[in-house]
Specification:
This protein is α/β, with parallel strands linked by helices. The chain has one domain: Restriction Endonuclease (3-Layer(aba) Sandwich), CATH 3.40.91. Helices cover 37% and strands 19% of the residues. The protein is built from seven helices and nine strands, in the order ααβαββββαβββααβα. The strands form three sheets. A five-stranded mixed β-sheet has the order 1-2-3-8-9, sandwiched between helices. Strands 4-5 form a two-stranded parallel ribbon. The chain has a two-stranded antiparallel sheet with strand order 6-7. Strand 2 and strand 3 form a beta hairpin. This is Restriction endonuclease.
């Protein structure tokens, strides 16, 4: 059973969350993908997780990652993920490090329209759902703008995951922190509290 990422976190989990947040403040988009998102989605039960990598940008068609999820019926759902390290907003002129949601809109449409090849099952398939993932905030205005720009069918295929979602999911699944991230010292009293 999946752990609830919205439950109150223990003191040790809050320390791990703070350490991971500091990592997200300074990491590159590739590090966010490879050191945080790939392990997280594996832990959450997704399979065949494939990162396009930024060397192959011409071939990613809006997807930084694609993966599949096996339903209890043994049917597959396919997911595409567009990752941005910074904040997603709906301003006409985003600040440096932020991405404009209009750019994400184009990438989401491309992601939903372009087939992927699953070498384990052999068919070419379309993505069933698209995750828009941001290392910082996804503003309410950006979510609303994208919802209004997409038709009802495509709108139902889009899911958002922002910084808080990443931090909470990563901590409650008890994944090891990325290499180079040092958790804060244990709380005064000397012993660490159990993470549950």
């Amino acid at each position: 059973m999946a752990k609830n990422p919205h439950r109150p976190l223990s003191a040790v989990e809050m320390q791990r969350r703070t350490a991971l947040a500091a990592f997200l403040d300074t990491c590159s988009e590739d590090a966010l993908i490879e050191e945080v998102l790939l392990p997280l989605f594996r832990q959450l039960g997704f399979h065949r997780i494939t990162a396009a990598g930024h060397r192959d940008k011409a071939l990613e068609y809006g997807k930084d990652i694609w993966m599949r999820y096996t339903l209890p019926t043994q049917h597959f759902l396919y997911f595409g993920i567009q990752v941005k390290r910074g904040k997603l907003d709906a301003t006409g002129k985003p600040r440096a490090g932020n991405a404009n949601i209009a750019e994400i809109h184009n990438q989401a449409l491309m992601m939903l329209a372009h087939e992927i090849f699953d070498p384990e099952t052999n068919p070419r398939v379309l993505v069933d759902h698209a995750f828009i993932v941001a290392g910082e905030e996804i503003t309410k205005a950006a979510r609303n703008w994208l919802g209004n720009a997409l038709d009802a069918a495509k709108r139902s295929q889009i899911m958002f995951m922002d910084r808080d979602d990443i931090l909470n999911q990563f901590v409650v699944t008890n994944l090891p922190l990325p290499v180079g991230v040092l958790p804060s010292a244990t709380p005064s009293g000397g012993t660490a509290e159990a993470p549950f």
